[in-house]
Amino acid sequence: MYDIIVKKRDGGELTKEEIYFFVDGYTKGDIPDYQASALTMAIYFQGMTQEETATLTQAMVDSGETIDLSAIKGHKVDKHSTGGVGDKVTFIVGPLVASVGVPVAKMSGRGLGHTGGTLDKLESIKGLEIEMTKDQFIHNVNTHKLAVAGQTGNLAPADKKLYALRDVTGTVDSLPLIAGSIMSKKLASGADGIVLDVKTGSGAFMKTLEDSKNLAQEMVNIGNNLGRQTVAVISDMNQPLGFEVGNANEIKEAAEILQGKNVEDLRELSLELASHMTVLAEVFTSYEEAYEALAKNLENGKAFQSLRNLVEAQNGDVSMIDNLDNLPKAKYKIDVKAEKSGYVAAIDAESIGIAAMYLGAGRATKDDEINHGVGITLNKKIGDWVEEGEALVVLQSDDEDSQASITKVLDAYSIAEEKVEKPTLIYTVIK
Ligand code: URA
C-alpha cells in the first residue's frame, strides 16, 4: 500500500492490480484508514486517467453484490440526479417512460440534509410500501413496467466506506472519486442504460458549468468504458425546480404534470430526460420522435395511469393521487412576505431546502422522522416581479411560529431593481 500511495503522489498511473489491491483490502479492513486517506488525497491532487477511473469504479462494483435484472424483459434504463431541491422528476419520468413500454426498475434512497429522498416523498401516499422481495420487484416491473423500491443488498460497500472517509478528510471534491462513487452504485443496480441529470448552479454539488460538464463527461466515460450506454443532461439548479418543495407537496406537483398541467421547467426537464431514456431503450429512433410521443402521453392520461399502477401495485391509497386534496396536509399556511419591491434575482435553493427541513420535511440527522404534510410553495421564481408585502412563498407548517424557516426563506431570496432573465434550464447534453 505504501508503494501505491507514493506512486500516485508522484503522478504515476496505477495498474488494475494496484487499484483492486487497494479497494479489496480497504473493504475487508486490511488497509487502515490513514493509508486510504493518504491515497485519496494523492488522487485529489494528481487525478486519475480515464482508464484508472473506470477500473476504480469496477473494483467498487465488484466489492459487493450486484442486482441481476435479466429476468426483466426489455432494455432497462435508469435515471440518476446528482441532487437538487424540489427535484421530483423521478415521479414524472418513471411513469412517463413506463407509459411507452420501457421497464423502469428504480432503486432509491432516503433524504438527508437539504435535499429530500425519493422514498420519503413516495411514502406521503398512505400505505405505499417500498420494501419488497426481489421477486415481487421483478414481477411488478414486468407487469406494470415500473417499480420503486428501497435499496436492497450490499451494493458497492467499498464506496460506502470510502465516501464516509472522504467526507472527513477533505477529499469529496475530486472528480474521479465523485464520478466513480456515483457510477459504482448505478452500475451495481443493473440497468443497461443510464441517463444522468447533472445539476449545476448555486443549489448543486457543482456550482460552475465547467465543473458540471467535467463531472458529466467523467461519468459518461465510465459508463461507456464499462459497457453501459450513458447520457448526461446538464440542468439548472440556481433555484428549486418547479414550485413545490416537501414530500406531499412534490408528489402533488408531479401528479399534476402527469395529469397534463404545464409547470414549465419541470415538464421540460422531465420530457428531456425521458426522451433520452426511451431513445437509449431503442423504443424511438430519434429524440424528436420520443419527445412528441411522450408529450402526448402527458396529455392523454397514459403517463398518469402508469403512476396509478405503481401506487396500486405497491399497496398505496390511489384515492390520494386521484384527488390530490387527500394527500397529507399541514395545520397552518404562513405567507413569507417580500420586504421590498423588485425583481427576484436569485433564490438560494439550498436555503429553501434547509427551510423545508426546519419545518420537518427533511432530516437533520439520520434518525429524524419525516413530516409528510409540511413544505414550501414558491409563488415567485427568478425573473418575477414582486411587490413589497406580497407573499414570496407559502409555508405549510404544523408550527404557527416557524420563525427559523421564515428567516431562512428571506435570506434565500435576493430582490433587485433591474429586470433579471430567467436562467437557462438545460445547458447541454453529453453523450
Ligand atoms: N454523491 C455520491 O454518491 N458520491 C460522491 O462522491 C458525491 C456525491
UniProtKB/TrEMBL annotation:
Its cofactor is K(+). It catalyses: uridine + phosphate = alpha-D-ribose 1-phosphate + uracil; 2'-deoxyuridine + phosphate = 2-deoxy-alpha-D-ribose 1-phosphate + uracil; thymidine + phosphate = 2-deoxy-alpha-D-ribose 1-phosphate + thymine. GO terms for cellular component: cytosol. It is an enzyme of class 2 (transferase). Residues 343-416 form the Pyrimidine nucleoside phosphorylase C-terminal domain. InterPro entries: Glycosyl_Trfase_fam3 (IPR000312), Glycosyl_Trfase_fam3_N_dom (IPR017459), Glycosyl_Trfase_fam3_N_dom_sf (IPR036320), Nuc_phospho_transferase (IPR035902), PYNP-like_C_sf (IPR036566), PYNP_C (IPR013102), Pyrmidine_PPas_bac/euk (IPR018090), Pyrmidine_PPase_CS (IPR017872). Catalyzes phosphorolysis of the pyrimidine nucleosides uridine, thymidine and 2'-deoxyuridine with the formation of the corresponding pyrimidine base and ribose-1-phosphate. This is Pyrimidine-nucleoside phosphorylase. The lineage of its organism: Bacteria, Bacillati, Bacillota, Bacilli, Bacillales.
